[in-house]
Design goal:
The complex is a heterodimer of chains A (about 675) and B (about 220). By secondary structure, chain A is mainly α. Chain A has 25 helices and four strands. Classes of the chains: A mainly alpha (about 675), B mainly alpha (about 220).
Chain lengths: ~675, ~220
């Protein structure tokens, strides 16, 4: 019955969309729509939570007489769907709450409001769909509504271009998924997931499906090298939508991958995991390296989504490896790590995008070089943004650490794998994961330091005001969630038990009973982690140190010059900038990965021209994978252009020739 | 009875192909129209025979539609149009008659090879019918491609439709609705094309479609 209630919720969201068209221009419109979306997503989240806990993922199914006449539309909530519904609706509720404040400043709400609830509904539908047709329709609906949100501010030229690239990649991904489902359904056309589950595809076909799903779901999730649209499109949307796209929609794509590869495709081959692990490792490192080179705050966050998707794929790849080698406990651990990171990333990435949105609202700037010193003007935003930064950098005691630690625990189990390929690959992927974690920390030191610390670089940053209560409430809620998931991870791991049980047949050991609220993934003798103790220790020692300093040090307040490098210069442009912070890392990795070139121009002695340092970066993935395709299409369309200007008889002859050719093929075909 | 009914159906469908060749051969508009009327008449006979053989009374209706509209109304109307346009003595040349006939023969052979192979298990009556129908369709298309005058392109289109009707009636159990809608669509197409003919004529003083190309500034 749960699925029926959930569908009522989705229907409510779909009703909100036309309502929003009517209300779009009225001053109360955005409050009504976002308020209603908040209530509906909260309800949907509750339904999903109930399904996950109370019924421990019992399956509930409904089929509606919609869609294809002989198929209908099937919807289903099982443990996996319930977990992802929680992620989707938690993100949706937080974004709606944030938008209650943030949406007030929107200059063209009628372009955002109608698509927002429809977008939420589409993501819910993707997760609930139980046949290929409904899945693809919902998936495409999700792409289209988010595309409309990306180009909401269509007067900015880059947004239109981002929308174009996004639309192209989205349809490409859907094409791959369409082919994958076509192969899964076989020649009988069994598009219901139940029928697909019952018939397992054999070796070569299953491998083809895996590759297609990796492309189809991966292009939506932002897997390298299919990530090109993501850092363009995510920042272009209004910030609460960016949070949804980055924090939630990429997770829906991960859901598609998990659903097909773990659930529908049948038992995996061992080498599948090599592909997934390799893709995950490269994605993680490339994502964070790209992020380090950015100085646009929202684009930096979008590139970090690419990195985190890589981490999630590493977890999923490990789970595939262990599942293929019949090591269910280890598979459960790796899958739990991946799924927990799905949840964690959706929480802290939404939080960070909200923070970036608040900054954007307060200053009108996304470029970090034009910000700075915001901690004095927006102290609460700065605090929650710091929490998000710590969480995404995977520092204890926050939640990012837990999932990455679990991933490492799974990596440490890899010597037990029998195949040599994996024995060598998995530690290498572990090294990539460690590298990306360290680089992520560096990147967020840069993001937080340059944006919030130092002195304001522009008058806009100087004049910033603290953001409104609703936005702050949403951010504090997510920050609290980061902390709770960090210090009490056992409950979250236990919540994932029904999901892993349904996908790999077994779940991680029950964590709620472990003493002192520790988590013990494999055995006490191997490893355990206690977030609560770490938290108490940090709080205790921090308080102790602070009070000792306050007690023992002089209590006279003294304000001195900041960031002056020994030269007290009143110009804030002399501060450490984002690009100067990233320069050492650019020197190390950038020359090979981005062909970075630094060109210094020193004016001749006596000249009054300023000295300049220009950095040129090239996106090699774009050059290698996208530019040739674009050039090829351009060339072909130029050649085919003359077909636009034929005479009527020539067109008829073309049709005729094509028909005769096809008949000839039919005649000659053996 | 079985053998005789098959032979007659075979003969009528074969005559349709033969008349299609006559259309292809004929390059005077007036005579072309007469041959088209003959084409439609044979189609009506063939459909009526199918109705008798298959014992499907609704096919008689199709036959009547074919007879009234395609063999009488449309040719008469086209006659009038041609007279009003003053092109009833026109002789047109695009592809020579000889090559066109050779191409047509090739197409008929192709249609036979394709159809007889893919319908190996079908009822022999329907099988032959489908093969002839495909030939008629291809010959109609060939006519549209090789003619320059808009009126003869219309006739090519109409005879192509005739081929479709022949295929539809050959297959058992084709619902009446489909046939009526096909007939209706032909009528609509005829009206639309007729109107267009006059519009083209008003504008360019000719129904030679080459004039349209010249107007667009294209080279041939």
């Amino acid at each position: 019955m749960m699925v029926v209630y959930a569908l009522y919720g989705v229907a409510a969201l779909l009703v909100l969309a036309p309502l929003a068209i009517a209300l779009g221009r009225s001053p109360r419109g955005s409050a009504v729509i976002y308020g209603a979306s908040l209530i509906v997503t909260l309800t949907l989240g509750m339904i999903a939570l109930l399904n996950l806990f109370e019924y421990s993922g019992r399956v509930s199914v409904v089929s509606l007489p919609l869609g294809l006449p002989w198929l209908g539309a099937h919807f289903r909530i099982d443990a996996l769907a319930a977990f992802f519904l929680v992620v989707v609706n938690l993100g949706g509720a937080a974004a709606s709450l944030f938008a209650l404040g943030y949406g007030q400043h929107e200059d063209s709400p009628q372009r955002v409001l109608p698509f927002y609830p429809a977008y939420l509904a589409a993501m819910n539908l993707v997760v609930m769909a139980d046949d290929a047709f409904s899945f693809l329709v919902s998936w495409e609906f999700m792409s289209l509504t988010s595309w409309a949100l990306v180009i909401a501010h269509h007067r900015i030229k880059e947004n239109l271009q981002a929308g174009y690239v996004y639309l192209l990649m989205a349809s490409f991904g859907t094409l791959a998924l369409l082919l994958a489902f076509g192969l899964l359904a076989g020649s009988d056309g069994n598009y219901a997931f139940d029928a697909i589950r019952a018939t397992h595809a054999n070796g070569g076909l299953a491998a083809l499906v895996l590759i297609l799903v990796l492309i189809g779901a991966g292009s939506k999730a932002g897997v390298v090298p299919l990530h090109a649209w993501l850092p363009l499109a995510h920042p272009a949307a209004p910030s609460h939508v960016s949070a949804l796209m980055s924090g939630v929609m990429t997770k829906v794509a991960v859901y598609g991958f998990v659903r097909i590869v773990f659930d529908l495709l049948g038992p995996p081959d061992w080498w599948w995991s090599m592909v997934v692990l390799g893709v995950g490792g490269i994605t993680a490192v490339m994502g964070v390296l790209y992020a380090l080179m950015q100085h646009d705050l929202k684009r930096l966050l979008a590139y970090h989504t690419v990195e985190n998707i890589g981490i999630i794929y590493i977890g999923l790849g490990l789970a595939l490896a262990f599942k293929a080698h019949n090591m269910p406990l280890a598979a459960a651990l790796a899958l739990t790590a991946g799924l927990l990171h799905v949840f964690n990333h959706s929480v802290f990435k939404s939080l960070l995008f909200f923070g970036a949105g608040s900054v954007l609202n307060a200053t009108g700037e996304r470029d970090m070089e034009h910000l700075g010193g915001l901690i004095h003007r927006m102290p609460q935003t700065a605090f929650v943004f710091l929490v998000g930064c710590v969480a995404i950098s995977a520092l204890p005691p926050l939640n990012g650490f837990v999932s990455e630690w679990l991933t490492f625990q799974a990596i440490l189990l890899s010597p037990q794998l029998p195949s040599w390929g994996l024995k060598f690959l998995v530690p290498a992927v572990g090294a990539l994961l460690a590298l990306s974690a360290a680089l992520a920390a560096a990147c967020f030191v840069k993001a937080f330091g340059v944006t919030f610390l130092g002195r304001a670089s522009t008058p806009a940053a100087q004049a910033a005001k603290e953001t409104d209560t609703n936005s702050l409430a949403a951010m504090f809620f997510l920050a609290a969630l980061c902390l709770v998931a960090g210090i009490l991870p056992g409950f979250f791991i236990d919540a994932l038990a029904p999901v892993t049980r349904s996908l790999v047949g077994i779940s991680m050991p029950h964590q709620a009973g472990v003493e002192w609220l520790s988590i013990v993934p494999i055995a006490e003798s191997r490893s355990s982690y206690n977030g609560l103790l770490v938290f108490i220790f940090i709080v205790f020692s921090g308080t102790l140190a602070a009070s000792a300093i306050h007690r023992l040090a002089s209590d006279k307040l003294r304000r001195g010059p900041a960031w002056d490098c020994g030269y007290p210069d009143p110009n804030p442009a002399t501060q450490y900038t984002a690009s100067s912070f990233a320069q050492p890392i650019r020197r190390v990795y950038g020359t090979s990965v981005f062909r970075a070139r630094e060109i210094g121009e020193m004016p001749a002695p006596g000249s009054i021209l300023p000295a300049r340092l220009t950095v040129k970066l090239r996106d090699l993935i774009w050059d290698a994978a996208y530019a040739p395709v674009a050039d090829g299409i351009g060339y072909a369309s130029e050649k085919l252009n003359s077909l636009q200007f034929l005479t009527i008889r020539q067109y008829l002859s073309l049709v005729f020739a094509a028909l005769v050719l096809l008949l000839l093929v039919l005649a000659i075909w053996p | 009875m079985r053998g005789l009914s098959f032979d007659i159906a075979h003969m009528l469908a074969g005559s349709l192909v033969l008349v299609s060749f006559m259309q292809l051969y004929q390059d005077r508009l007036y005579a072309l129209l007469n041959i088209y009327a003959l084409h439609a008449l044979i189609l009506a006979m063939s459909v009526a025979w199918q109705a008798f053989v298959q014992d499907a009374p609704h096919l008689y209706l199709t036959a009547v539609i074919a007879l009234v509209f395609k063999a009488i109304v449309i040719p008469t109307a086209l006659h009038k149009i041609i007279v009003r346009l003053g092109i009833h003595r026109e002789i047109e040349t695009v592809v020579g008659v000889g090559p066109a006939m050779l191409l047509g023969m090739g197409l008929v052979a192709l249609a036979m090879v394709v159809m007889l192979r893919v319908t190996a298990e079908a009822d022999p009556l329907a099988r032959e019918d489908l093969a002839f129908a495909l030939s008629v369709v291809l010959l109609g298309l060939l006519m549209m491609v090789t003619r320059r005058n808009a009126v003869s392109q219309v006739i090519g289109f109409m005879s192509l439709e005739n081929g479709l009707v022949l295929a539809a009636t050959g297959a058992k159990g084709m619902p009446l609705v489909v046939e009526i809608s096909v007939a209706f669509s032909v009528l609509i197409a005829f009206i639309v094309i007729g109107i267009f003919l006059f519009r083209i004529r008003e504008r360019f003083d000719t129904v030679d479609v080459q004039a349209l190309d010249r107007f667009r500034g294209e080279r041939r």
